[in-house]
Write a structure and sequence with these properties.
Belongs to the HPS/KGPDC family. HPS subfamily. It catalyses: D-ribulose 5-phosphate + formaldehyde = D-arabino-hex-3-ulose 6-phosphate. InterPro entries: 3-hexulose-6-phosphate_synth (IPR017553), Aldolase_TIM (IPR013785), OMPdeCOase_dom (IPR001754), RibuloseP-bd_barrel (IPR011060). The protein is of the alpha/beta class. α1 crosses α10, α4 packs parallel to α5 and α8 packs parallel to α10. The chain starts with a strand and ends with a helix. It has a single domain, classed as TIM Barrel. It has an eight-stranded parallel beta barrel, surrounded by eight helices. The chain contains ten helices and eight strands. The structure holds ribulose-5-phosphate.
Length: 210
């Protein structure tokens, strides 16, 4: 089933809870965004999981090294899923995947900044992550590269696919039509004036493609 995933790239738990009060009913995955993880840490994971026990809570900690101790922090706080960078060492990605099993947790491998996505995805896929995510980082979103197009590099993988980077209401249906299991929306939900209304529209759109 395709999932609607909100990325809370905010600074405080209070800001995140305010957005969630509006979008919470419509989303499947709640991401504690990297800025929020840096600002409030594992406490953000704990508080939001306590408030939304039935949602999948994803700690976007973008692990680059120390696969086991880094993922321990998020899983112990109640995260259902963590991210590790596709650009990190093979050993790190394998360690995160192995460690997640202890917690019955999931792993998303984030391909942000990976140059040969197709080749790297094929390699990483063999280790059995839950998701491989094409991700156009903030700092290159103005170049016109689209994660919805980049998903073609994931063709044929066994893992589920995710796409992130600038997806908003105007591009959301295209993302749902593409081969994307987890559609990640950050600013397009968390930084609009009417997050509840936009989330409801997205929920209705994705419902046609589930
Ligand atoms: O991980 C991220 C940035 O590194 C963001 O969460 C991701 O890009 C989604 O946010 P947006 O839709 O605003 O691009």
């Amino acid at each position: 089933m395709k999932k609607l995933h909100v990325a809370l790239d905010l600074e405080t738990i209070a800001q995140a809870e305010k957005v969630l009060a509006e979008v919470g009913p419509y989303v499947d995955i709640i991401e504690i965004g990297t800025p929020l993880m840096i600002s409030e840490g594992a406490q953000a994971v704990k508080e939001i999981k306590d408030l939304y026990p039935d949602k999948e809570v994803f700690a976007d900690i973008k692990i680059m090294d120390g696969g086991q101790p880094m993922s321990d922090v998020a899983f112990k706080a109640g995260a259902d899923m963590v991210s590790v960078l596709g650009a990190s060492e093979d050993a790190t990605i394998k360690e995160v995947i192995e460690n997640a099993k202890k917690y019955n947790g999931k792993v998303l491998v984030d391909m942000c900044s990976v140059k040969n996505i197709a080749e790297r995805a094929k390699t990483v896929d063999e280790w059995g992550p839950d998701y491989i995510c094409v991700h156009v980082g903030y700092d290159i979103q103005n170049t016109g590269v689209s994660p919805i197009e980049e998903v073609k590099f994931l063709k044929g993988i066994k893992s589920k696919t995710a796409a992130a980077g600038g997806i908003k209401l105007s591009t959301f249906e295209d993302a749902c039509k593409a081969d994307i299991d987890d559609v990640v929306v950050g600013g397009g939900l968390a930084k609009v004036d009417n997050p509840g209304e936009v989330a409801k529209k997205m929920y209705e759109i994705i419902g046609q493609y589930r």
